[in-house]
């Protein structure tokens, strides 16, 4: 990729792209270049019909009988088995259920319980990053307060070696940072944590369906993640939970609802956890939303035939890096001096998104990043804005989903960005009013 | 209602029923008399189109913008405000979110925290009923173990006065029992609990949309319940949580996810709970399933014009009691000596279901109740079976939803029951094999 890449070059890349037809698995709205699949994935073309079938046939006609006949009861596991193939997990190790925050509560509680049960009373620290997704920190705060642990936040990955002391019970990290797109080396970090006797909890919200994940190969301990981003499961789609088999049957998680019971329909008064990861289920799942998630998972599995012998996600990862490389190269070539690249340039440290900050100090502190994102949205290029604080800049965030984005989309989005800047379009008042959610 | 009620009498009751047209709000499958709305409610006729709109338009076209433009962000509160009218709550006191089990965890934790914070170290008992719905007991077991409380189970409501000692921190009851249909007097029980300084947690799974509930008038403390039974929200529909305003802003609940934060989209690293019941939200909600729940709530609100001055649920309650009275009278008249009525005969103690046990001791201990339910299902009369144990009999359970059931349905279901018994149909082998879920 050179800095003088042209629209024709992008079209040539699209013609040579082995994944180009996967775009047909989605319903992309007219006039939109969607660079926000890291916030809410695009609707698979199969979803409306599948959801309509679940509503009108399975519920409307089957009614209560569909728990058996439509196998609603198996959905968390069946979807978990599909997802397992994307995150380096084995069959029956993953459940699709509840929300990311709730699943984090379950696994962090379970990890803490293991440490408490070990009798090592000096090991009462949970380490995470200050830049982790806030809900992860909120859940950790709650559990630390309740269970007598200390939450220690590091400012960057460089501080990790020094932070990994024998007091650390759990290292809780998000694999790909939601703001910067920076990716941890899961294997190396897990090994470092294990070397001091700490357990690892990984949040895969920006990883599952976006980058290769090797949970078992990396010997991770616990993982959770989100169904509505790169998994294309729909707004607020149920999340997932994975537990290493060496832990799965060892602990009770506190949200011990009937669906995690060894025999939920025996209606016994005392809790007896199901074997394995099934004990991480709690209550009745939202079947319509869960069914929509299956259509999203199927879009990712459709890329499997292109992976050859390079393992899960290999083909998607290759294209993802090519897309983000192209976007970075074009922004740097066509908007010189305007942006700082926040996302790591090194492939091994990059997720499937590109984040930019304003280079000019006045613009970096002002409203420019927000307003540029709004001006792009008005042109149909949907990315998002994430506010900074004293330590971190405001950012423009662009997610690249190789399933449905083309190299021409990359060209066009940069072309729009150039026009927003050259025309000073972003200075218009309507792009400088804040909404509640972006 | 006399024991010589005829089919013509039932038809006359239907003609006189002011709620008879509400049945048109539902899509009832052909050839089915559905007496299982206490397990999974019938699909409202409006739901398929509404769900299709959420999927294809709000998600498919609106994408991430719909958090603002379709007000997804407000759904838990908007639905909570509709539900509030059915359960004697005020606006902004209810949130529709997560599952019943998870909401119970939140409120029971909060109730325990209040007692712990009060400094009364002797008050560490949670009282409930052995016959409570199992998931409630499992969640209570978990929290009691974790927080140093004792769970004390009483065998019947008669034991309640003796159980309410100064050691009781929380009285956790299900308002209408899932197996028997017996209903507690919420006001009297709450008053008795408060008299010894205990807080009350009410599970409204079989009450909301089924019977009048008077949370504020009864001065209850916490309540949770289910969206997929009498609220017709769809399979696994999100549940709800209500907290008395005197407690709502006082405690943190442990599942402190970003949606319960005072400013979730500021992405601050520390948790600051939202004011009021909004802090009982946790993670991102399953928007498709949540949208379907709104259609269910609307079917109940459609009955409001018939309530006159008798308060929420008055018209539905009147018809519910007439339906269950008719069913009891017809079963007793036409199947003499075969069944024992498990559900209380007294209106004040009856929910919206009728439960029967076999009278003959051999049949009571054997497979008869199960097989009769299966034989009825094969005839299109869908009720369900709940297994007994050493203390309690096997039961046949029939839920009566006044929104979509007629008196002729009652007649027909008893007619089928008579034939199942008279023909010994229930003794066929195919009705004597157990399924996983009934």
TrEMBL record, chains A, B:
InterPro entries tied to this protein: Aminotrans_V_dom, Kynureninase, PyrdxlP-dep_Trfase, PyrdxlP-dep_Trfase_major, PyrdxlP-dep_Trfase_small
Keyword Membrane: no
N6-(pyridoxal phosphate)lysine sites (modified residues): 229
Domain Aminotransferase class V residue range list: 79-300
GO molecular function: kynureninase activity; pyridoxal phosphate binding
Keywords: Hydrolase, Pyridine nucleotide biosynthesis, Pyridoxal phosphate
Top-level enzyme category: hydrolase
Residues annotated as binding pyridoxal 5'-phosphate: 100-101, 133-136, 174, 203, 206, 228, 258, 284
Pathway(s) annotated for this protein in UniProt: Cofactor biosynthesis; NAD(+) biosynthesis; quinolinate from L-kynurenine: step 2/3; Amino-acid degradation; L-kynurenine degradation; L-alanine and anthranilate from L-kynurenine: step 1/1
Record EC number: 3.7.1.3
Domain of life: Bacteria
GO biological process: anthranilate metabolic process; L-kynurenine catabolic process; L-tryptophan catabolic process to kynurenine; NAD+ biosynthetic process; quinolinate biosynthetic process
GO cellular component, one term: cytoplasm
Keyword Hydrolase attached: yes
Pfam families, alphabetized: Aminotran_5, KYNU_C
NCBIfam families reported for this sequence: kynureninase
Annotated function: Catalyzes the cleavage of L-kynurenine (L-Kyn) and L-3-hydroxykynurenine (L-3OHKyn) into anthranilic acid (AA) and 3-hydroxyanthranilic acid (3-OHAA), respectively.
Subunit comment: Homodimer.
Similarity section: Belongs to the kynureninase family.
Protein name according to UniProt: Kynureninase
UniProt organism field: Variovorax guangxiensis
